């Protein structure tokens, strides 16, 4: 074995070890949320800490540094195939980033955010922003320090964005969100003023949990979610987790008096899971075997949830089964009423409960706040007011207190600045992919109306899923759609869908 | 920090790391058996291999070697407390054992036994001993090699016994089993000849699974199994697994047309779990925080299953609830008939389905075979005949084929020689502990009849559970009962219980 081959071998061994730790930690997280006994937590947290620490040490080890340096030598690099090159690039990005931050500072930050999360919980419950404020101030200040260590080109905030959406910048987001805002804000207003508001009362009857579970499982199978490579459990906060390509689990939340919560939650997580289940097996055992970014991931959950699962075609096929499953509850409700009910759009205060149209505005508000924080044009102390103003401007609603206002999301307590935009990017990517898909599969809606979802899953697999992290989000969107991310597709999709629903 | 303190610190850190790997691997095993999707297995096996390998490397690392050597220095040793001394002794025993076996030989053996397990499965199904024979020959031969590397004093087989029951020897077992055989073989014969055989037909009706689950959970709570530190799941082969003292899970197998399978399986695993749940919290984070040996562990599962769960007193308290739960099925069955039915004793071919009395004979047969193999007085080729002869002698039954004969257990395919005796030792320990308990708590049966099981659990905790591995099995039995393991207690218990049942 040549020195080069030896190095490559060492690299792959190191990556495999890191994957093993990651998978073990993933399973422990899943278990803690789905059914671990209460008293397991103390010991389990220590084990998670131990293995996560080990994982971090490996990713920043001298061994990793030496391997990456050698393999990046021009004479070595040209002997690498495409997958190997990308594996090294991904590992190197992580290595460089972790190495630039002083370990002590990072350690303090981990403690800070974990304290902040519990303080936030109390502060939210009592709507007491003052309590949370000093923590948030420190978290923002530490992130600013991080940015100094990590470096930035034009805007400090770009460094944070890149962590969740490689290649995304404030300049691009300003443009994307600007275009979106211009047409979504008036759409939201028009919807609100429409005299044709849907009746949603029939979604609020009592729906037997076991029947809900059975129907959700049925829909998952129809979506081509592979239940031999996954399972459905119940949690307070639904999620999808890919442990390996043969084990991608999802959870949902059954609410007895709200049919929509579990149903669309399950389809949403199912979309995330389809992505992870369909990454090519060739990437197993590499650090590329997961979704390429938060935004692309969210595009898949949103595509399946809203563009398939909340489409008229979908319910042409499945509404009969739904009526039968909950016999007596929906018998007198025509399909058209059901369709309008599940697509109700209404300005609200809480992001996680908002609909497809207004959701984007919730995200834009958070984006503008984060931007202002990292451009240092607003202070943490002013956030509650800033937040309330934005809600009034964009959505026409004002929180009664900070608990349902600036304190509503956990993200900032955890230091996740730069994450929120992914949610809206997901909607934009999804609409743009859908546009291309419709061009190549003009009978897509007919297929959906027949429950023939396999070709759609296969198209997404070929275009997106199979690549894992082999392609960056920007490369994917360009390769699939032939152009860069363009917010027009989302706006057009929303207008085309919602104008008929609200008779605008 | 002194050099000594530094070393001690390093040692504790290393142990904590090993515990973390062990707990992660444990959870992955639990998950694979309870509900992991089928396609998870491929990836998960690699992760388990990776982490188990890491665990083995840590336990035999140069770092561990150096730490153990230093801490064992006389001037250091005297500064250690009791727990630290035992921690070092346990780690050292494992280190020494692992270090003596050449890694290549061990690696080949791991491959051999994993192949042997799948060959065994086929061989068992087709009753084809010839197919399994070459594997078993190699496994025995490799174990003989291991023994040469590990060393032995009087008998080679002692080295294997010590792995599962520290301190146990062939000489002791010969004496224990000899005494047992002398009185159990006639008891079995007398039971078989009794004209008063219990009617068990009412245990074979159809018992609703959900009701079985609820009743099993109720009994677990009554036993003081802490469901906030555990959970009950369903598997083909029931087991208990202690992940940490706050997370000790059990599984059971529900058989619709056999009430006894799940019920007594659950109580059995519940006994194992009580042990692990009640180790003192002081031992958390040490390598002493689990049951001290297979035999002592089995004593607890057997004590709860047979001496509590199959006692008349127990059903004086719970039979009413059982009848109510399965209303209509047991209404006409008097308690005394039920008690006799759940204590039916009948010579059979299959160990795992055998009763409290005959079980010991199944074990003795295996012990005699293992002994003969390692004294090299019988060859693998002769095992089927040897087996059948022993069954005829001890139990009066002869297998129709090797599938229900010599091929029935997986243990030998996995190389687990020296393990079987633990099962019978468990029965002996249990009876001896029970005798002491009865001396100190003369109203034990009254307590059981009132469902007042807490004092019993507390006594066992104080006497046995709390210590974990801090005491060896021999030390425990001496400390609790004031004498060495004595088979008379088991014989007396069996005679006292079964003579009335069979009117002998």
From TrEMBL, chains A, B:
Belongs to the peptidase M32 family. PROSITE patterns: PEPTIDASE_M32 (PS52034). This is Metal-dependent carboxypeptidase. Keywords: Carboxypeptidase, Hydrolase, Metal-binding, Metalloprotease, Protease. Its EC number is 3.4.17.19. It catalyses: Release of a C-terminal amino acid with broad specificity, except for -Pro. Broad specificity carboxypetidase that releases amino acids sequentially from the C-terminus, including neutral, aromatic, polar and basic residues. The lineage of its organism: Bacteria, Bacillati, Bacillota, Bacilli, Bacillales. One of its GO terms (molecular function) is carboxypeptidase activity. It is an enzyme of class 3 (hydrolase). PANTHER family: CARBOXYPEPTIDASE 1, METAL-DEPENDENT CARBOXYPEPTIDASE.
């Amino acid at each position: 074995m040549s020195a080069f081959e030896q190095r490559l071998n060492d690299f792959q061994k190191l990556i495999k070890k890191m994957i093993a730790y990651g998978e073990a930690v993933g399973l422990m997280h899943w278990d803690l949320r789905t059914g671990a006994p209460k008293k397991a937590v103390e010991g389990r947290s220590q084990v998670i800490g131990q293995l996560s620490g080990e994982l971090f040490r490996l990713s920043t080890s001298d061994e990793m540094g030496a391997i990456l340096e050698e393999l990046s030598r021009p004479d070595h690099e040209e002997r690498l195939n495409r997958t190997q090159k990308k594996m090294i690039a991904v590992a190197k990005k992580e290595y460089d980033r972790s190495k630039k931050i002083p370990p002590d500072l990072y350690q303090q930050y981990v403690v800070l955010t974990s304290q902040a999360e519990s303080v936030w919980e109390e502060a939210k419950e009592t709507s007491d922003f003052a309590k949370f404020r000093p923590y948030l101030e420190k978290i923002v200040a530490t992130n600013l320090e991080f940015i100094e260590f990590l470096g930035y080109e034009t805007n400090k905030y770009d460094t944070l964005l890149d962590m969740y959406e490689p290649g995304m910048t404030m300049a691009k987001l300003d443009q994307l969100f600007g275009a979106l805002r211009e047409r979504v804000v008036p759409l939201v207003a028009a919807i609100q003023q429409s005299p044709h508001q849907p009746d949603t009362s029939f979604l609020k009857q009592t729906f037997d949990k076991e029947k809900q579970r059975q129907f959700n499982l049925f829909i998952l199978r129809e979506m081509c979610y592979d239940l031999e490579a996954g399972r459905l459990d119940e949690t307070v906060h639904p999620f999808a987790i890919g442990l390996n390509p043969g084990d991608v689990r999802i959870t949902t939340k059954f609410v007895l008096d709200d049919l929509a919560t579990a149903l669309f939650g399950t389809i949403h997580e199912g979309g995330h899971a389809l992505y992870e289940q369909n990454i090519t097996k060739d990437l197993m055992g590499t650090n590329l075997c997961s979704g390429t970014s938060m935004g692309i991931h969210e595009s898949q959950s949103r595509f399946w949830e809203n563009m398939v699962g909340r489409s008229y075609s979908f319910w042409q096929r499945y509404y009969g089964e739904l009526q039968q499953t909950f016999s007596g509850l929906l018998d007198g409700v025509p399909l058209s009423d059901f369709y309008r009910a599940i697509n109700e759009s209404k300005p609200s205060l809480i992001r996680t409960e908002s609909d497809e149209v207004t959701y984007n505005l919730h995200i834009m508000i958070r984006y503008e706040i984060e931007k202002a924080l990292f451009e240092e044009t607003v202070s943490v102390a002013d956030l509650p007011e800033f937040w309330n103003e934005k809600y009034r401007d964009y959505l026409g609603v004002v929180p009664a207190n900070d608990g349902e206002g600036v304190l509503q999301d956990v993200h900032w307590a955890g230091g996740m600045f730069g994450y929120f935009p992914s949610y809206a990017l997901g909607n934009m990517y999804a609409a743009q992919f859908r546009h291309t898909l419709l061009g190549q599969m003009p009978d897509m809606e007919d297929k959906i109306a027949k429950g023939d979802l396999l070709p759609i899953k296969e198209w997404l697999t070929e275009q997106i899923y199979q690549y894992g992290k082999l392609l960056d989000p920007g490369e994917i969107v360009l390769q699939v759609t032939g152009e860069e991310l363009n917010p027009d597709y989302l706006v057009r999709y929303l207008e085309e869908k919602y104008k008929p629903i609200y008779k605008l």
